[in-house]
Amino acid sequence: MTFMPPLKSLEELAAHQLTGLQWTVDHAYHGSEHYRAKLDQAGVKPGDIKSLDDLGKLPFTSAEDLRTGYPFPLLSVPMSEVVRIHASSGTTGKRKVLCYSKKDIQDWAHMFARCYEIAGLSKEDRVQIAVGYGVWTAGVGFQLGCENFGALAVPIGPGNLDMQCQFLVDFQPTVMCCTSSMALLLSEEIKRRELSDKHRVKKIIYGSERTSEAMRKRIIEGLGGVELFDIPGLTELYGPGTGLECQVHQGIHYWADYYILEILNPITLEPVPPGELGEMVVTTLCKEAAPLIRYRTRDLTRLLPEPCPCGCLMPRHDRILGRSDDMIIFRAVNIYPGQIDHVLSHSPGIGSEYQIILDNRDDGKDYMTIKVERAEDAPPDDDAKTAQIVAKGVKAEVLVSPQVELVDYGTLPRSDRKSKRVFDHRFE
Ligand code: ZN
C-alpha cells in the first residue's frame, strides 16, 4: 500500500490544487462568518478563484484571527461535525485551539502514514513514540500515523530515561520519534549504560525545534550511524506530519496535495524569488473544520526548486530556519538569526554555540560581532583562518561583514530551552 498520490506530473498537481483552493474558499465563505467578513472586505467571492494566481487576491489569516475567534476560531462546519480539538502549548496569551472533523483526522492520519513510508519503514518496524501526549498534536499525531501505516507503536511519551532505555532493549524498536535534544540525551544515556549493542534503533524522526547540522552529527555518531528525518509540524495545519525529510536528506518534501505553500517576504508580503528565505504562508485544500486561507505561520524557510534526486514529485522546502518575529534590521538589511546559524552550520572548525552582538560605536555606525565556539578538537592556531571563512560566509548570506571572534569550546552559556543568541546594544 502506498500513501503517495498517483501523480504523474506537476501540472496534475496544480490542477488538483486549484480544485482544492476553489473548494476551500467556497467552504470557508459559506461556513464561517469570520471568513465571509474577511473575504467580503477583500472584495473576493468564491467564484472569483479561476486560477492558482488568484491566490494572491485572498486576504491573509494570522494568529490574531485565532485569538479573536477563541475558543473555536475559523470554525467552518457545524459543531456537531467536530470530533476532536487540539491546542498549541501557547506561551503567551490564549492557546490556539483547532477543531477537526472526522475527515480532517483521516486526512492527517494519511499524511502522517506517508511520512513513515517516505522514511522507508515497513510493517515490521516498531516505533517508540517519545514526544508529548496531551491536548497538543505531537504524541497523538505520531501514533495515529504509525497505526494507520501499520507499524507497531510504543506510546511512551517524553522523558523517563530509565523506561526509554528499558523499552529499547525489551521491545527492540527500530524507530524513535522524539525531539532532537531528547535524541542527544538518549544517545549519551545509551553509551553510559553500555547498551549500544543491545538496541536496534536505525531511524530517528525528530521535530518541533530547530536543530543545527552540528547537533545532527552528534546524534548520528552517538547512536552509531542512525538516519535522521526532520518532520515539520504546526497545530494550525493539522499538526506534525505535513511533510518529511526524505532518504537523500536534502530538504523536506511537503504534501502539496493537501496544502499550498507560499514563501513571502514578511514585510512586503510579496513572493520571494524561488530559493530565497521568506515566511511560510499556507492555504489548505480539503481541511473542513478549520480551513486555513493564506495563514501566516511566521516560520522562515526557502523553497528548494530543483527536483529531488529521490524522484518524489512532491515539492521541497529547506529546514525551518527561524521565526519572522526574530528579524533584525541591521544597516537597512533584514537579517534572521537562522541565516547566520545556517552559515555557521556549514563552516568547519567551529562548535554549535554562538552569539550575535550588535552595537553602535563612536563613528555612528552599527557593528555586528559574532562570538562562536571553536570546535572541541580544533587548535586555536587556526582561529584567524576560521574567522575569515565565517565572515565571508555571513557576508555572502546577509550582505553584512561581521567581526568574528572565536572562543574556547564550552565557554558560551548553554541551556535546555532556547538559548538567547542575539544581544542588541544599539539602542541602549
Ligand atoms: Zn527526496
Compact summary:
The chain is of the alpha/beta class and 428 residues long. The chain has helices spanning 10-31, 33-42, 63-68, 102-118, 138-149, 161-170, 180-192, 213-222, 337-345, 383-398, and strands at residues 82-87, 97-101, 126-129, 152-155, 175-178, 203-207, 227-231, 233-234, 239-240, 243-245, 252-254, 259-264, 278-284, 295-301, 303-304, 316-317, 322-323, 328-330, 333-335, 350-360, 366-374, 403-407, 422-424.
Give a verbal description of the structure.
The protein is an alpha/beta fold and 428 residues long. It has 2 domains: 1-324, ANL, N-terminal domain (Rossmann fold, 3-Layer(aba) Sandwich); 327-424, ANL, C-terminal domain (GMP Synthetase, Chain A, domain 3, 2-Layer Sandwich), CATH 3.30.300.30. The protein is built from 10 helices and 23 strands. It has helices at 10-31, 33-42, 63-68, 102-118, 138-149, 161-170, 180-192, 213-222, 337-345, 383-398, and strands at residues 82-87, 97-101, 126-129, 152-155, 175-178, 203-207, 227-231, 233-234, 239-240, 243-245, 252-254, 259-264, 278-284, 295-301, 303-304, 316-317, 322-323, 328-330, 333-335, 350-360, 366-374, 403-407, 422-424. A 5-stranded parallel beta sheet has the order 4-3-5-6-7, sandwiched between helices. The protein is globular, with a radius of gyration of 23 Å. The chain starts with 9 loop residues before the first helix and ends with a strand. The relative contact order is 0.10. The mean pLDDT is 92. Bound molecules: zinc ion. Zinc ion is lined by residues 246, 248, 253, 308, 310, 312. Zinc ion (ZN) binds next to loops.
